[in-house]
Every structure is written in C-alpha cells, then in structure tokens.
Design brief:
Structural class: mainly beta
Number of helices: 2
CATH class of the largest domain: Mainly Beta
Number of domains: 2
Helix content: 10-25%
CATH superfamily of the largest domain: Trypsin-like serine proteases
Radius of gyration: 23 Å
CATH architecture of the largest domain: Beta Barrel
CATH topology of the largest domain: Thrombin, subunit H
Number of strands: 17
Order of helices and strands: HEEEEEEEEEEEEEEEEHE
Length: 225
Amino acid sequence: MRRIITILTALLICLLSVPALAQAAAPDPLGSGTVLFNPLGPTNRQCTAAFATTDGKAGYLVTGPTCTSGDLYASTSSGGMALVGTVTKTGLPYNGFSIVEVTNTTDWELVPWVVADGTKIDITGSEETKIGGDVCRVGPTVLTRCGTVDAKNETATFPWGTGTGLTRTSICTGPQNLGAAHLTKDQAQGVPLGGASDICTTPGASYFVPINPILDTFGLQLITS
C-alpha cells in the first residue's frame, strides 16, 4: 500500500510539473483607424484604414491615399508589428484611397467599428448623407470634428494629387490630417482626404472620397455590425 501511495505521489508531481500548453493569442482587431505603414517605403510612408470590407472571399481595407504600393504592416497589441497585407488597387479615378488585401488572418481580425474619443462606434451601413446633412470625421488618433455636407462631385488638389468625385464638408481639417473615416451616426460616408487648414477657429472646408462608389467599382461590401 505504501508503495502504491509513493507511485501515485510521484505521478502527481510529474503532472504538476508539466507546463500548460500555450494558447494562441487572439487576433488583434483590424479596421477603421488602424495605422498602416510600409517599412521599405519612403520616409513616413503610412496611411490610415478607413473601412473594413470583403468581396465574399477575402478581406480588404479601404485606406487613405498615402499608401500606394507594397506590403503594409501595423503595430500589434503585444508591442510588435505584423504584416497586414498588400496594396492591390489605388484610387483612380478618385486618386484618394488605396485598397489593401488582408493576407494575414492569423494576427488580424477585420472588425466593423471605429474608436472615436475613446468610444466604440459600430458601423452598420453606408447610407449616403444628403447635402445639408450632418457628418463627422472620426478616428482613434484625431479629435472628432463634425459639420455638414456642403457639396458633392467636387475636385480638389492635395499634396498627393488631385482628387475628383469628392464630397466637400464644413469640417475644419488640415491638408494631411486624414484621420480614419467620415461617418453620419453609424453610417459610413467616406475616406478623409483633408482640407485647407489646421487652424480651426472658424468653419473650414474639407473633402472625402465617397465610400459607395469605391464599393461598387471593386465589388466590395462593408463589414458591418
């Protein structure tokens, strides 16, 4: 009996000394507001994701205009960086956005929301706001600023080129202050391009690329809540 107890005790010690199997880390959220960068590209070549989308097979990010080619990476919650995917399309005829195919689904999970001023806003659709309607520029790295839709099908020139088919707003924004997305409540409106000035003591003029023509042109659908 004493020998059996000794054997059982030894087995218990062995079992307790076996390290627990490491669980795979959950994917980080990937969507509106994620800052992407090309470590092999020109200095400071980065862009901000505006919306998460899919073609039914693969996932894509519609981003701001300053990531034009190559493999893009983003910072992970663990403090490292991981590949997101590859730029597959740029914004012709709008010249104001890029489309990134998400090839790394191990480290990233596309999500239908954006964090603005510390609050998560679920994106549920892309119903277009009419002229005179309210719109806001939101994102985790910028202050939320709101205004009205003042005109559509506009043309404007920015440091990266001239955009056409743009929507003009009364939101004061600098020429390269891209933020993440333009929303009306929970409805996606477009990809921020910027405006004339960062001095926002008075209403300004800024522009975004409407999201629905992008979706229609490339056969994409928003990932929504």
